[in-house]
């Protein structure tokens, strides 16, 4: 039986009326995304149509999900709100703090010892406030959510950018910062700009080496890392219905790599099969009864160009396997052209490690397709030439895969099974290398491949592909190998080929697990104590940020002018820094250390305008803070892309940065900055980025008349006595301006409950 079944049935009960009302006020048939959005309005039934891409809308999500790295700050903020219990079903998943080094059992035990303080904190907070707690080893948040909580037609927010994975089960699932999660858990509305819509019509059917992963790798190549910003990507067509539920989840998961708000598929038989297989026949039955509301109206499918802002069409029967990278997940190469690209770009041909798993590709089907390739290597007497690691997505997947002999198949060719956790995908990988500065290549079935993302090494060229392609490359140990056309020499000196992979969508004997790793909260948590040691270097209770002083911001120093790609990994690295996710002051020592300084082309080296000396970014900012001097960060396009981590917004706020001025923002990061009382500004003329000089002192003028749609002025005072006045834009609405004025959104919540 499903968790929160009454809540799910309640969603279906009110959907029909709300969708009918929305159809009337919008005045046309509705897409699936619109049906779910309009049926989750905070106001109830729609009283007006909301303009896509412009109108800010208040929503009422059905649930909240948090992973352990982001949950710490989200729950520290929630504790300040003064609420006795969460207002919507919520869960915490301990998947980010387990470092991959030796193997599953050893790594998990080390993590439990090393992170005991954090796990105990999260368990006690969950117990007190009515939050479901998934223990370390239970699995990766998005796979566990798909197996237990996602349901067609629902709306969920999660403190992780890959929350859209639940779109594989027909759910509007959106990655947010912890402040947003705190709001919803506190019983408040959640605000989102009404997204635009991209329709992706899938025809045909996958075959051979092509997989669901290749669909999103292809789409990423079409749309780029920011092409989906502000959009919901909705997949439909007979091709969509042919994909497995977990395959759909893979596609939705990696929609984060094109900046999409979320991605979604309509409810179909594949979803029903998955629900029944994961012991949720009751949800499948309820969804069947509401099926007409869990897909776009017929008119939309008949003439989709009229209803979507953009349209893409893909014939799955023509889709070739893809390999994306290096250094960005949208550099897409059809497999037939990849070897040539490797040679022409002088990327290291020798493959050192192949890694499969992550929240994107760690389902039972993924494991079986990869295992079918690994099994051939054993039968054809081929030894893997590269290191090979496997990460199951959940304890249920791991237990079932072990029962069915899948894990043993990997181990026969030298594969190492890692703990059910994110591991190397987020930099939690103690990789052993003879020379970390040496150019090298790895390939993964993960989602992101930014520089340093997986192993912290700038010289590592990381590529992304499906689990079966990764397995084939690991066996070959050579990036110029094409398993569709090339032979391998086995131990007997014979030339042999790998056959097409074969997968099993759902286990023939059903899923099984002895201990899924779930811990239910206390029925009454009022007496549960949440203790945080004041001397801890891992956890720190929060102090409120100061309110706006009521004046223009003048005399700000330029902290850094970041050049090129500046993701949340550049702003607040993961890896070894994950242990400080619950201690704002300590983790602030990684602020912007990965960003490239425009003026010297170096990372973590900026000019201190007070002394003229060069120093590390956090240390320089701490000097400004000690002197009571505010600062500003200037950035390039799509600033803050990548992970949802709100630490990338909280660290600058904590250290005294007052504004971020860029050419454009990634959606989640812009919202996170606003929530923390920061000014998130964009150049009205992107070429004005070039006017910012290293020794500039900067004023932000017009804040006393700060209002929606009204530009502000930034004055750049140059060291030679000249100045430039430039116009900057913002996307603040009236409520968000109040966040800025109050010092943060949380400050407003706290005042409302007298906390």
UniProtKB/TrEMBL annotation:
Pathways per UniProt: Carbohydrate metabolism; tricarboxylic acid cycle; isocitrate from oxaloacetate: step 2/2
Top-level division of the source organism's lineage: Bacteria
One of the record's GO cellular component terms: cytosol
Catalytic class of the enzyme: lyase
One Pfam family linked to the record: Aconitase_C
Similarity remark: Belongs to the aconitase/IPM isomerase family.
PANTHER family to which the protein is assigned, alphabetical: ACONITATE HYDRATASE B, ACONITATE HYDRATASE, MITOCHONDRIAL
Name of this protein: Aconitate hydratase A
